[in-house]
From TrEMBL, chain B:
Highest taxon of the lineage: Bacteria
Location of the ABC transmembrane type-1 domain: 73-262
PROSITE patterns in the record: ABC_TM1
Taxonomic classification: Bacteria, Bacillati, Bacillota, Bacilli, Bacillales
Subcellular location: Cell membrane
Record-given protein name: ABC transporter permease subunit
Organism of derivation: Tumebacillus lacus
Record family assignment: Belongs to the binding-protein-dependent transport system permease family. OppBC subfamily.
Length: 269, 274
């Protein structure tokens, strides 16, 4: 196992090959949410995914998280196929791909105190001890406190309930939960779009710092080209379920960009 | 503190709780309270007026009416509790599985529930009494056979709406098994609505058992079930109406207190009326 992992070192962390997903709706035409989407994410990289509402960004993240199944196409994490996994094998890959959802309010169970929500992944994987939690792992509450500290919250937040926290604080809790297993890939599906504008930059800086500190890879989803540019090494542009453009962030203003990319950047230039 | 406040806010709920507490007390301690054996027939003592020996008088067979009523509380509440628990134990897992697993299983289960669940309990109970004979066991089985479906349906509809929410998706991504997700996130969500449903149903079930026993299709003499006691007293209604008034009042009180509690629970737990 270790050998194969080492030989994969140079190969991408995530490979997605011709992924498609169609939703049939109750009335009328089926929606092609994803069509022939292919890309990869390298280790330690932040890949930005930008596109307007309804372009299929969340659909892609749900497929990568094995919350839904694609109609066709393949996904590989460290060369291991994600398709059709169930039971134990699915649980194994889930350790490596975690998520921060858009709406921090909906993402936390209102009935659980914060520390229980933060510990949920670690409670499900008693055998996992990320290096940064090594000294506190035996004690659940200390582990939760350490995770909160890493996202800028205080021990006094441990026993609060979600309704006693602000939106930004809730999103920090969700981020703490997302990093708690030290996944290789953290999918951030519009992590700042439910937050006050004044908080967005703070949250992005936190994500950036954690990425560097823990050596994570991100799939950073947003419809805001400015935050995408700030966060990402490379950028994918999606329109109506297809990837229409793909480039390193520093070439975002290049003349070769797709017309749709130019429209997105024109608004903020 | 909080509870006390909400009780003061709604005196009717408090009344319901007080009545039901009294009944539960009678159920638990009945055997030590009753002055006489509820089944002993004494033809020499028949149709006695109230006295120290017989607080509510005696019936047409000389049995102590008070003792029979207290014994009846035990039977009534005991049976209703057994039915409700059975119904919840069947309905909740079926609704959870149907809603969470979905697919073919869900289609089949919901087809059964939509088809059979539309039948009124008493129609089923009468048919069962007709085919398998009138007795308490058949009556209870018929009620259970219909009632679990309502619970399955309510639980399923809650699971269907909750399972798409991000906290449940996050729990799945966090590596929780289906059972973990249900236990940690879904079951706590369904408990309040199920409690309200159960409180409402207890009143209905008590009525149903009493009604069938009154018709001679449920509890059989000499069991001091309240519906059966109503039936026993029927021939004497002109001369000794107490024989029917006491059990009738008892049924009324317990059903009213269940409904008051159900209303209070619904307000307090903020369950959307469905
Ligand atoms: N469960 C579903 N059933 C039917 N259609 C769906 C379903 N989920 C998504 N869709 C449709 O698929 C398309 C892509 O949706 P998706 O949520 O992936 O968009 P998005 O890019 O994340 O948009 P937003 O920026 O608003 O979050 C939309 O047209 C949407 O209506
Ligand atoms: Mg989305």
């Amino acid at each position: 196992m270790k050998d194969t992992k080492e030989s994969m070192e140079s190969s991408p962390l995530l490979t997605v090959n011709r992924l498609s997903k169609t939703y049939s709706t109750a009335k009328g035409a089926p929606v092609q949410a994803l069509q022939d989407v292919s890309f990869h994410i390298r280790k330690g990289e932040c890949l930005g995914l930008v596109g307007e509402s309804g372009s299929g960004k969340s659909t892609l993240s749900r497929l990568l998280l094995s919350l839904e199944r694609p109609d066709s196409g393949e996904m590989y994490v460290h060369g291991v196929p994600l398709n059709g996994l169930t039971g134990k094998a699915l649980r194994e890959t889930r350790k490596q791909v975690q998520v921060v959802f858009q709406d921090p309010h909906a993402a936390l169970n209102q009935r659980l105190p914060i520390w229980r929500s933060v510990l949920e992944p670690l409670d499900n994987y008693p055998d996992v001890t990320p290096p940064f939690l090594a000294d506190v792992r035996p004690n659940r509450r200390e582990t939760a406190a350490k995770l909160l500290e890493m996202v800028g919250l205080l021990p006094e937040h441990l026993d609060r309930y979600p309704h006693e926290l602000s939106g930004g604080q809730k999103q920090r809790v969700a981020i703490a939960r997302g990093i708690s297993l030290r996944p290789d890939l953290l999918i951030c599906d519009e992590p700042t779009s439910c937050l006050d504008v004044s908080l967005q930059a703070q949250m992005l800086r936190l994500l950036k710092r954690l990425q560097r500190q823990l050596g994570l890879s991100y799939l950073f989803i947003s419809h805001d080209i400015v935050s995408i540019r700030m966060m990402s090494d490379r950028i994918l542009v999606m329109q109506e379920g297809r990837i229409v453009d793909q480039f390193p962030s520093d070439q975002i203003l290049s003349e070769e960009r797709h017309l749709y990319t130019k429209q997105l950047t024109a608004a903020v230039r | 503190m909080n509870t006390w406040h909400s009780i003061r806010q709604s005196p009717m709920t408090a009344l319901g709780i007080a009545l039901l507490t009294l009944l539960v007390f009678l159920t638990l301690f009945g055997p030590w309270i009753v002055p006489n054996d509820p089944l002993t027939v004494q033809m020499s003592e028949r149709l006695q007026p109230p006295s120290w020996q017989y607080p509510f008088g005696t019936d047409h067979l000389g049995r102590c009416l008070f003792s029979r009523l207290v014994e009846g509380a035990q039977i009534t509440l005991g049976l209703a509790a057994v039915v409700i628990v059975t119904v919840a134990v069947i309905g909740i897992p079926v609704g959870l599985l149907s809603g969470y697993v979905g697919g073919r299983l869900d289609t089949i289960l919901m087809r059964i529930v939509d088809g059979a669940g539309a039948l009124p309990e008493f129609v089923v109970a009468i048919s069962v009494a007709g085919f398998l004979g009138p007795n308490l066991t058949n009556l209870l089985l018929s009620i259970v056979a219909i009632k679990w479906m309502g619970y399955a349906r309510v639980v399923r509809s809650i699971v269907l709406s909750e399972r798409e929410k991000e906290y449940v998706l996050a729990a799945r991504v966090a590596g929780g098994s289906a059972w973990t997700v249900m236990r940690r996130h879904l079951i706590p969500q369904i408990l309040s609505p199920v409690f309200v449903l159960a409180a409402l149903d207890i009143g209905k079930i008590i009525m149903l058992i009493a009604m069938f026993s009154f018709l001679g299709l449920g509890a059989q003499p000499p069991t001091p079930e309240w519906g059966a006691m109503l039936n026993d007293g029927r021939p004497y209604f002109q001369t000794v109406p107490e024989l029917m008034i006491y059990p009738g009042m008892a049924i009324l009180l317990v059903v009213i207190s269940c409904n008051l509690i159900a209303d209070g629970l619904r307000d307090r737990l903020d369950v959307r009326s469905r």
